Amino acid sequence: MATKAQTYRTWSPKASEIQREWYVVDAEGQILGRLATQIATLLRGKHKPTFTPHVDNGDFVVVVNAEKIEVTGKKPEQKMYYSYSGYPGGLKETPYRILHQRHPDRILKIAVKGMLPKNRLGRQLLKKLHIYNGGRHPHAAQMPKTYVVKNVKNVK
What we know:
CATH 3.90.1180.10
């Protein structure tokens, strides 16, 4: 006689069974970290009932108006971004305000990257993120849906 463990098997989605959507997110007036968590959730596929941690079943995300993203508190003056070359004296510091002036799209990409897995899957998921500074994007052919961001303002 078969036991319960032998008759029921855990279902895992296969690559051919995954349905991917395209979403457009407007970053104007959004808080950096709160927006990044929602984008990471879409990229990872955690909003779907078929979520599996080791499978890429997330959606494509297009972010527009990345230069209009906001941060709270004293972060514009105090937040730093670091890169290290691996050599002695090779630590570079870039303040938030300088990075926001030069490459405002990289700020959001760094925030989302930190919320994804630190392995091959995370690098694959990050390729599905497309960030643009203006209000236009070249992905109209994919017929992206507008994603309404859950706007949770930070309480002082």
